[in-house]
Amino acid sequence: MGSSVSVQDASVINITDDGSMGLSTDFAKSLHRIMPAPFNAKNPVVTKKHEELIKTNWAAIHAGTSAFDPAKHLTPIKFLHQTFYQALFVSAPSLRSMFRSSMTVQGKTLTMVLETLITIVRGPNFVSTIQEMARRHLQYGVAKKH
To answer: Which molecular-function annotation in GO is an example for this chain (predicted)?
Structure first.
């Protein structure tokens, strides 16, 4: 492993000597059967370069990309919320009923979750945080088909 990153469940996450992080082979195989394309990568890995791109893109979203129109959306983050949920509900209208809070509150929650994941991706609580998020989503009624 060779990395200073510690995770509680090393059977799920592998970290290589170059810092790349991915799902263990056995865990990835177990998910591959149930994940729809394009999420069914045989060996999903996040390299340091991927991490840099994620952080760079997140900073661009905060600053406002060229798609952001201040006349239509108050802030770049509101634009993100509205675009994300609009696309989600167009592709799966039945999911709308799963969101009980206002979309403003839901959008703020989405932003908080993304900020947290981007911040802790190399931290010791990454796996437990992802597992807790998955558990909560199951309680909300999210299923494999979603």
So the answer is: heme binding
